């Protein structure tokens, strides 16, 4: 699967009331998975030979927070956590993830993607802008980190 074409990962409840994931692609098409977003992201990272715990730890080291951090795959593929629904239970996933490179603009309670689609959110504009700032910081840190070990790939 080409993960670079994913515009957003949106949580929803299936007909049985279970957490499921809607994958919104840049071209507007959708795919539905019968697993939670957390499980889908872990699968995606493992498929790309990345350890989810190591990614989370490295992100913490760079931005200094542990909760609701962006997920970085590389400097061009960073997913921002955005609250997309109200949680029903304590462990209910209400955060989805939006690909930072496909965000055209954001306002209070909505994100406009580059393909023109509008995602309603429960996150204020200031929160989304903070996450975009964190993503930019992660991107710069990733490039610096990669340059340190570039000699290994030559």
Helix content: 25-40%
Low-confidence stretches: none
Question: What is the terminal separation in angstroms?
Answer: 27 Å
- What best-fitting shape do the alpha-carbon axes yield? globular
Give the beta-strand count.
9
Rg from alpha-carbon coordinates: 15 Å
* Total helical elements: 3
Arithmetic mean pLDDT: 90
Biggest sheet record: 6 strands, antiparallel
Keywords summarizing the entry:
single chain, 154 residues, alpha+beta, six-stranded antiparallel beta sheet, three-stranded antiparallel beta sheet, 3 helices, 31% strand
Can you put this structure into words, describing what you see?
The protein has 154 residues and is an alpha+beta fold. 31% of the residues lie in helices and 31% in strands. It contains 3 helices and 9 strands, in the order βββααββββββα. It has helices at residues 37-47, 52-63, 125-148, and strands at residues 6-13, 19-25, 30-33, 71-74, 77-83, 95-99, 103-107, 110-113, 118-120. The chain has a 6-stranded antiparallel sheet with strand order 3-2-1-6-5-4, with helices on both faces. Strands 7-8-9 form a 3-stranded antiparallel sheet, covered by helices on one side. A hairpin with a 4-residue loop joins strand 8 (110-113) and strand 9. The longest helix has 24 residues, at 125-148. It is globular and about 50 Å long. It starts with 5 loop residues before the first strand and ends in a 6-residue tail after the last helix.
């Amino acid at each position: 699967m080409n993960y670079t074409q994913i515009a957003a990962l949106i949580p929803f409840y299936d007909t049985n009331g279970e957490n499921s994931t809607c994958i919104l692609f840049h071209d507007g098409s959708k795919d539905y998975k019968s697993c939670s977003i957390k499980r889908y992201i872990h699968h995606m990272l493992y498929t790309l030979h990345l350890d989810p715990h190591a990614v989370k730890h490295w992100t913490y080291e760079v931005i200094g927070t542990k909760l609701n951090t962006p997920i970085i795959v590389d400097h061009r593929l960073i997913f921002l956590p955005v609250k997309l629904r109200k949680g029903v239970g304590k462990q209910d996933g209400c955060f989805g993830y939006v690909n930072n490179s496909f965000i055209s603009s954001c306002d209070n309670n909505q994100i406009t993607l580059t393909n023109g689609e509008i995602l309603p959110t429960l996150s204020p504009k200031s929160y989304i802008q903070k996450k975009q700032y964190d993503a930019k910081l992660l991107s710069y840190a990733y490039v610096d980190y990669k340059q340190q070990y570039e000699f290994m790939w030559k």
